Amino acid sequence: MMPDVDLLVADSLIGVDWSDAPIEVRQATRFDVSTDELRKRIRRWETKFAAGNASATVKAVRSDWQTFFAWCDRTGVRAVPVSGPDLMRFLNDQVTLGRRFSTITRYVYSVRAVHTGAKAPDPTQHEDWAQDWKVLKARLRKGKKLAPRQTEPLSSADVHAVLGVIEGTPEGTGARRRSKEDERRDLRDAALLRLASDTLCRESELAAVQLEDFERKGDGSGWTLFVGRSKTDQDGVGAYRFVSNETHNAISEWCAKSGIEGGYVFLPIGGRPKREPTNQGAGGGEIEPPAPHITPDQIARIMRRRALRADINRRITGHSARVGSAIDLIEAGFSMSDAAYAGGWESERMVRHYAKKAKAGSNAMAKLRAKTANGMEPQN
Fold first, then answer.
1. Is 64 within a domain?
2. Distances (CA, A) of 159 to 98, 162, 169, 320, 369
3. Which residue has the higher pLDDT, 217 or 290?
4. What keywords appear on the UniProt entry (predicted)?
5. Pairing mode, if any, of strands 279-280 and 239-243?
6. Do residues 222 and 194 share a domain?
7. Which SS3 state, helix, strand or coil, does residue 91 take?
8. In a shared domain, residues 160 and 109
9. pLDDT in tens, 221-252
10. 328 and 256 in one domain?
11. Do 226 and 309 share a domain, yes or no?
Protein backbone atom coordinates (compact mmCIF):
# COMPACT_ATOMS: atom_id res chain seq x y z
CA MET A 1 0.00 0.00 0.00
CA MET A 2 1.35 3.39 -0.98
CA PRO A 3 1.69 5.91 1.87
CA ASP A 4 -0.66 8.91 1.94
CA VAL A 5 2.18 11.36 2.57
CA ASP A 6 5.77 11.36 1.28
CA LEU A 7 8.65 12.22 3.61
CA LEU A 8 10.83 13.78 0.87
CA VAL A 9 14.00 13.28 2.93
CA ALA A 10 15.91 11.47 0.18
CA ASP A 11 14.77 14.07 -2.34
CA SER A 12 16.34 16.81 -0.23
CA LEU A 13 19.74 15.21 -0.80
CA ILE A 14 19.57 15.37 -4.61
CA GLY A 15 22.49 17.41 -5.87
CA VAL A 16 24.17 17.51 -2.46
CA ASP A 17 27.92 16.91 -2.47
CA TRP A 18 29.61 16.47 0.88
CA SER A 19 32.87 15.17 -0.55
CA ASP A 20 34.55 18.41 0.51
CA ALA A 21 33.23 18.25 4.07
CA PRO A 22 35.97 18.90 6.64
CA ILE A 23 37.89 15.72 7.39
CA GLU A 24 37.33 16.18 11.12
CA VAL A 25 33.56 15.86 10.59
CA ARG A 26 33.94 12.52 8.84
CA GLN A 27 36.34 11.28 11.51
CA ALA A 28 34.16 12.48 14.38
CA THR A 29 31.14 10.62 13.04
CA ARG A 30 33.08 7.60 11.73
CA PHE A 31 30.89 7.48 8.64
CA ASP A 32 32.22 7.06 5.13
CA VAL A 33 29.30 6.54 2.74
CA SER A 34 28.76 8.17 -0.65
CA THR A 35 25.83 10.53 -1.11
CA ASP A 36 24.27 8.16 -3.65
CA GLU A 37 24.37 5.25 -1.20
CA LEU A 38 23.04 7.54 1.53
CA ARG A 39 20.04 8.47 -0.63
CA LYS A 40 19.34 4.80 -1.39
CA ARG A 41 19.35 3.89 2.29
CA ILE A 42 17.07 6.78 3.22
CA ARG A 43 14.75 6.09 0.28
CA ARG A 44 14.21 2.52 1.48
CA TRP A 45 13.66 3.66 5.06
CA GLU A 46 11.30 6.54 4.32
CA THR A 47 9.00 4.35 2.20
CA LYS A 48 8.55 1.96 5.11
CA PHE A 49 8.30 4.77 7.67
CA ALA A 50 5.58 6.57 5.70
CA ALA A 51 3.62 3.35 5.18
CA GLY A 52 3.81 2.33 8.84
CA ASN A 53 2.98 5.61 10.58
CA ALA A 54 0.03 7.97 10.76
CA SER A 55 0.03 10.75 8.16
CA ALA A 56 0.27 13.35 10.95
CA THR A 57 3.52 11.75 12.15
CA VAL A 58 4.92 11.65 8.62
CA LYS A 59 4.02 15.31 8.05
CA ALA A 60 5.65 16.30 11.35
CA VAL A 61 8.91 14.49 10.52
CA ARG A 62 8.92 15.98 7.02
CA SER A 63 8.41 19.50 8.39
CA ASP A 64 11.10 19.01 11.04
CA TRP A 65 13.57 17.69 8.50
CA GLN A 66 12.96 20.62 6.16
CA THR A 67 13.63 23.04 9.03
CA PHE A 68 16.79 21.20 10.05
CA PHE A 69 18.09 20.76 6.49
CA ALA A 70 17.55 24.46 5.72
CA TRP A 71 19.55 25.36 8.84
CA CYS A 72 22.36 23.00 7.78
CA ASP A 73 22.40 24.56 4.32
CA ARG A 74 22.66 28.08 5.76
CA THR A 75 25.38 27.21 8.26
CA GLY A 76 27.42 24.85 6.07
CA VAL A 77 26.83 21.84 8.33
CA ARG A 78 26.53 18.33 6.97
CA ALA A 79 23.01 17.07 7.69
CA VAL A 80 23.68 13.30 7.60
CA PRO A 81 25.47 12.41 9.67
CA VAL A 82 25.37 15.47 11.85
CA SER A 83 27.67 15.63 14.85
CA GLY A 84 26.26 15.96 18.36
CA PRO A 85 27.66 19.49 18.87
CA ASP A 86 26.22 20.66 15.52
CA LEU A 87 22.79 19.24 16.33
CA MET A 88 22.94 21.01 19.69
CA ARG A 89 23.82 24.28 17.90
CA PHE A 90 20.70 23.84 15.77
CA LEU A 91 18.53 23.21 18.83
CA ASN A 92 19.91 26.23 20.65
CA ASP A 93 19.19 28.39 17.61
CA GLN A 94 15.60 27.12 17.68
CA VAL A 95 15.31 28.01 21.37
CA THR A 96 16.49 31.51 20.48
CA LEU A 97 13.68 31.65 17.91
CA GLY A 98 11.16 30.87 20.66
CA ARG A 99 10.52 27.16 20.11
CA ARG A 100 9.09 25.26 23.06
CA PHE A 101 10.42 22.07 24.65
CA SER A 102 7.82 19.89 22.90
CA THR A 103 9.01 21.18 19.51
CA ILE A 104 12.68 20.76 20.45
CA THR A 105 12.17 17.13 21.47
CA ARG A 106 10.29 16.51 18.22
CA TYR A 107 13.24 17.89 16.23
CA VAL A 108 15.54 15.46 18.04
CA TYR A 109 13.20 12.55 17.32
CA SER A 110 12.98 13.43 13.62
CA VAL A 111 16.72 13.89 13.10
CA ARG A 112 17.46 10.64 14.94
CA ALA A 113 14.83 8.83 12.85
CA VAL A 114 16.53 9.90 9.61
CA HIS A 115 19.91 8.86 10.98
CA THR A 116 18.48 5.45 11.85
CA GLY A 117 17.24 5.10 8.28
CA ALA A 118 20.65 6.12 6.95
CA LYS A 119 22.39 3.68 9.32
CA ALA A 120 24.42 6.65 10.50
CA PRO A 121 25.81 7.27 14.00
CA ASP A 122 23.30 8.68 16.49
CA PRO A 123 24.32 12.31 17.21
CA THR A 124 22.77 12.14 20.69
CA GLN A 125 25.40 9.56 21.70
CA HIS A 126 28.08 12.26 21.76
CA GLU A 127 29.95 12.32 25.08
CA ASP A 128 28.81 15.87 25.91
CA TRP A 129 25.18 15.41 24.89
CA ALA A 130 23.68 14.71 28.34
CA GLN A 131 25.25 17.78 29.92
CA ASP A 132 24.48 20.03 26.94
CA TRP A 133 20.86 18.82 27.05
CA LYS A 134 20.58 19.91 30.69
CA VAL A 135 21.90 23.36 29.77
CA LEU A 136 19.38 23.58 26.92
CA LYS A 137 16.51 22.67 29.25
CA ALA A 138 17.71 25.32 31.71
CA ARG A 139 17.44 27.91 28.91
CA LEU A 140 13.91 26.74 28.14
CA ARG A 141 12.96 26.83 31.81
CA LYS A 142 14.30 30.36 32.19
CA GLY A 143 12.32 31.47 29.14
CA LYS A 144 9.20 29.68 30.43
CA LYS A 145 9.20 27.45 27.35
CA LEU A 146 9.66 24.12 29.12
CA ALA A 147 6.02 23.34 29.91
CA PRO A 148 3.79 22.63 26.90
CA ARG A 149 1.39 25.39 25.92
CA GLN A 150 -1.93 24.23 27.28
CA THR A 151 -4.97 24.11 25.05
CA GLU A 152 -7.67 26.34 26.49
CA PRO A 153 -10.72 24.29 27.44
CA LEU A 154 -14.26 24.50 26.11
CA SER A 155 -16.27 23.26 29.07
CA SER A 156 -19.79 21.87 28.82
CA ALA A 157 -21.04 25.30 29.90
CA ASP A 158 -19.00 26.93 27.11
CA VAL A 159 -20.35 24.48 24.54
CA HIS A 160 -23.88 25.21 25.79
CA ALA A 161 -23.23 28.95 25.31
CA VAL A 162 -21.90 28.39 21.78
CA LEU A 163 -24.91 26.23 20.92
CA GLY A 164 -27.17 28.97 22.24
CA VAL A 165 -25.67 31.39 19.74
CA ILE A 166 -25.85 28.89 16.87
CA GLU A 167 -29.40 27.74 17.56
CA GLY A 168 -30.62 31.20 18.54
CA THR A 169 -29.63 32.96 15.31
CA PRO A 170 -32.15 35.83 14.89
CA GLU A 171 -34.75 35.51 12.18
CA GLY A 172 -36.73 38.70 12.86
CA THR A 173 -36.88 42.08 11.19
CA GLY A 174 -33.48 43.43 10.25
CA ALA A 175 -31.73 40.07 10.50
CA ARG A 176 -29.65 39.00 7.54
CA ARG A 177 -31.52 36.39 5.54
CA ARG A 178 -29.76 33.10 6.09
CA SER A 179 -29.11 30.90 3.09
CA LYS A 180 -29.66 27.16 3.03
CA GLU A 181 -25.90 26.78 3.27
CA ASP A 182 -25.89 28.88 6.46
CA GLU A 183 -28.61 26.69 7.97
CA ARG A 184 -26.77 23.49 7.07
CA ARG A 185 -23.51 24.91 8.41
CA ASP A 186 -25.21 25.71 11.72
CA LEU A 187 -26.58 22.16 11.94
CA ARG A 188 -23.19 20.62 11.14
CA ASP A 189 -21.23 22.79 13.55
CA ALA A 190 -23.73 22.24 16.38
CA ALA A 191 -23.58 18.47 15.84
CA LEU A 192 -19.77 18.60 15.72
CA LEU A 193 -19.48 20.55 18.98
CA ARG A 194 -21.94 18.28 20.76
CA LEU A 195 -20.09 15.17 19.63
CA ALA A 196 -16.69 16.60 20.58
CA SER A 197 -17.97 17.41 24.07
CA ASP A 198 -19.63 14.01 24.59
CA THR A 199 -16.84 11.81 23.26
CA LEU A 200 -13.65 13.78 24.07
CA CYS A 201 -12.49 12.88 20.56
CA ARG A 202 -9.37 14.38 19.05
CA GLU A 203 -9.89 16.57 15.99
CA SER A 204 -8.48 13.83 13.73
CA GLU A 205 -10.93 11.32 15.23
CA LEU A 206 -13.86 13.70 14.71
CA ALA A 207 -12.89 14.18 11.07
CA ALA A 208 -12.94 10.42 10.50
CA VAL A 209 -16.37 9.73 12.08
CA GLN A 210 -18.70 7.76 9.81
CA LEU A 211 -22.42 7.14 10.17
CA GLU A 212 -21.83 3.40 10.50
CA ASP A 213 -19.71 4.00 13.63
CA PHE A 214 -22.79 4.76 15.76
CA GLU A 215 -24.73 2.06 17.61
CA ARG A 216 -27.70 2.52 19.91
CA LYS A 217 -27.31 1.24 23.47
CA GLY A 218 -29.61 -1.60 24.42
CA ASP A 219 -31.30 0.31 27.24
CA GLY A 220 -31.98 3.33 25.03
CA SER A 221 -30.00 5.66 27.31
CA GLY A 222 -27.74 6.82 24.51
CA TRP A 223 -25.44 5.67 21.74
CA THR A 224 -21.86 4.50 21.35
CA LEU A 225 -19.35 5.76 18.81
CA PHE A 226 -16.68 3.38 17.59
CA VAL A 227 -13.34 5.19 17.29
CA GLY A 228 -10.93 3.28 15.06
CA ARG A 229 -7.28 4.05 14.53
CA SER A 230 -6.12 7.01 16.59
CA LYS A 231 -2.98 8.68 17.89
CA THR A 232 -2.69 6.18 20.74
CA ASP A 233 -4.08 3.22 18.76
CA GLN A 234 -2.02 2.92 15.59
CA ASP A 235 -3.06 -0.72 15.12
CA GLY A 236 -6.72 0.27 14.85
CA VAL A 237 -8.00 -2.00 17.63
CA GLY A 238 -10.56 0.69 18.36
CA ALA A 239 -12.50 1.96 21.36
CA TYR A 240 -16.03 3.08 22.16
CA ARG A 241 -17.20 6.49 23.39
CA PHE A 242 -20.54 7.55 24.83
CA VAL A 243 -22.92 9.70 22.74
CA SER A 244 -26.04 11.24 24.27
CA ASN A 245 -29.44 10.97 22.61
CA GLU A 246 -29.47 14.77 22.17
CA THR A 247 -26.16 14.67 20.31
CA HIS A 248 -27.25 11.80 18.08
CA ASN A 249 -30.48 13.65 17.28
CA ALA A 250 -28.41 16.68 16.22
CA ILE A 251 -26.25 14.46 13.99
CA SER A 252 -29.33 12.83 12.48
CA GLU A 253 -30.86 16.22 11.70
CA TRP A 254 -27.66 17.40 10.02
CA CYS A 255 -27.38 14.20 7.97
CA ALA A 256 -31.05 14.35 6.92
CA LYS A 257 -30.67 17.96 5.73
CA SER A 258 -27.49 17.10 3.82
CA GLY A 259 -28.59 13.81 2.28
CA ILE A 260 -25.95 11.82 4.16
CA GLU A 261 -27.04 8.19 4.35
CA GLY A 262 -23.67 6.63 5.06
CA GLY A 263 -19.94 7.27 5.13
CA TYR A 264 -18.32 10.35 6.59
CA VAL A 265 -20.56 12.50 8.77
CA PHE A 266 -18.82 15.87 8.73
CA LEU A 267 -18.47 17.16 5.17
CA PRO A 268 -17.47 20.56 3.77
CA ILE A 269 -20.25 22.96 2.81
CA GLY A 270 -20.00 25.05 -0.34
CA GLY A 271 -16.98 26.27 -2.22
CA ARG A 272 -15.59 22.87 -3.12
CA PRO A 273 -15.21 21.58 -6.68
CA LYS A 274 -17.59 18.97 -7.98
CA ARG A 275 -16.23 15.47 -7.56
CA GLU A 276 -15.12 13.69 -10.69
CA PRO A 277 -16.39 10.11 -11.15
CA THR A 278 -13.45 7.73 -11.29
CA ASN A 279 -14.66 4.13 -10.99
CA GLN A 280 -16.60 1.97 -13.43
CA GLY A 281 -19.86 0.56 -12.09
CA ALA A 282 -21.28 -2.91 -12.76
CA GLY A 283 -23.76 -1.53 -15.30
CA GLY A 284 -21.13 0.37 -17.22
CA GLY A 285 -21.83 3.66 -15.46
CA GLU A 286 -19.30 5.53 -13.39
CA ILE A 287 -19.35 5.64 -9.59
CA GLU A 288 -18.38 8.74 -7.67
CA PRO A 289 -15.71 8.37 -4.97
CA PRO A 290 -16.75 8.96 -1.35
CA ALA A 291 -17.27 12.61 -0.43
CA PRO A 292 -14.18 14.07 1.28
CA HIS A 293 -14.58 14.75 4.99
CA ILE A 294 -13.50 17.98 6.63
CA THR A 295 -9.92 18.04 7.87
CA PRO A 296 -8.65 18.37 11.45
CA ASP A 297 -7.47 21.90 10.63
CA GLN A 298 -10.96 22.82 9.47
CA ILE A 299 -12.43 21.44 12.70
CA ALA A 300 -10.07 23.66 14.70
CA ARG A 301 -11.15 26.70 12.68
CA ILE A 302 -14.83 25.85 13.15
CA MET A 303 -14.44 25.63 16.93
CA ARG A 304 -12.40 28.82 17.08
CA ARG A 305 -14.89 30.75 14.94
CA ARG A 306 -17.92 29.50 16.86
CA ALA A 307 -16.32 30.29 20.22
CA LEU A 308 -15.51 33.85 19.14
CA ARG A 309 -19.11 34.40 18.09
CA ALA A 310 -20.11 33.42 21.62
CA ASP A 311 -17.60 35.95 23.06
CA ILE A 312 -15.21 33.22 24.22
CA ASN A 313 -11.87 34.90 23.59
CA ARG A 314 -9.39 32.19 24.49
CA ARG A 315 -6.84 30.09 22.61
CA ILE A 316 -9.35 27.60 21.23
CA THR A 317 -8.14 24.61 19.21
CA GLY A 318 -9.69 21.46 17.80
CA HIS A 319 -8.95 19.74 21.13
CA SER A 320 -10.55 22.38 23.36
CA ALA A 321 -13.85 20.52 23.85
CA ARG A 322 -11.86 17.36 24.64
CA VAL A 323 -9.86 19.16 27.32
CA GLY A 324 -12.94 20.94 28.66
CA SER A 325 -14.87 17.70 29.12
CA ALA A 326 -11.90 16.08 30.88
CA ILE A 327 -11.79 18.99 33.33
CA ASP A 328 -15.59 18.77 33.77
CA LEU A 329 -15.18 15.13 34.81
CA ILE A 330 -12.47 15.96 37.35
CA GLU A 331 -14.47 18.86 38.80
CA ALA A 332 -17.50 16.55 39.11
CA GLY A 333 -15.45 14.22 41.32
CA PHE A 334 -14.50 11.51 38.83
CA SER A 335 -11.00 10.07 39.03
CA MET A 336 -8.06 10.81 36.74
CA SER A 337 -8.37 7.22 35.53
CA ASP A 338 -12.04 7.75 34.63
CA ALA A 339 -11.20 10.88 32.63
CA ALA A 340 -8.26 9.22 30.88
CA TYR A 341 -10.43 6.27 29.85
CA ALA A 342 -13.25 8.54 28.64
CA GLY A 343 -10.85 10.45 26.39
CA GLY A 344 -8.68 7.60 25.17
CA TRP A 345 -5.48 8.80 26.85
CA GLU A 346 -2.85 6.10 27.33
CA SER A 347 -2.01 7.34 30.81
CA GLU A 348 -3.23 9.86 33.37
CA ARG A 349 -0.27 12.19 32.77
CA MET A 350 -1.96 14.54 30.28
CA VAL A 351 -5.23 14.52 32.22
CA ARG A 352 -3.29 15.48 35.33
CA HIS A 353 -1.68 18.33 33.39
CA TYR A 354 -5.01 19.63 32.10
CA ALA A 355 -6.67 19.33 35.51
CA LYS A 356 -4.09 21.31 37.50
CA LYS A 357 -6.34 24.35 37.90
CA ALA A 358 -9.43 22.27 38.59
CA LYS A 359 -7.70 20.27 41.32
CA ALA A 360 -6.44 23.46 42.97
CA GLY A 361 -10.02 24.16 44.02
CA SER A 362 -10.44 20.80 45.71
CA ASN A 363 -7.08 20.10 47.31
CA ALA A 364 -6.48 19.82 51.04
CA MET A 365 -5.79 23.54 51.58
CA ALA A 366 -8.96 24.53 49.70
CA LYS A 367 -10.99 22.20 51.93
CA LEU A 368 -9.32 23.59 55.05
CA ARG A 369 -10.09 27.19 54.06
CA ALA A 370 -13.70 26.22 53.31
CA LYS A 371 -14.03 24.74 56.81
CA THR A 372 -12.53 27.78 58.56
CA ALA A 373 -14.72 30.11 56.49
CA ASN A 374 -17.74 28.25 57.88
CA GLY A 375 -16.58 28.79 61.44
CA MET A 376 -15.05 25.35 61.87
CA GLU A 377 -11.73 25.14 63.67
CA PRO A 378 -9.06 22.96 62.04
CA GLN A 379 -8.25 19.78 63.95
CA ASN A 380 -4.73 19.32 65.35
1. yes
2. 32, 5, 16, 10, 31
3. 217
4. Chromosome partition, DNA integration, DNA recombination, DNA-binding, Plasmid
5. unpaired
6. yes
7. helix
8. no
9. 999 999 986 665 565 668 899 999 999 999 99
10. yes
11. yes
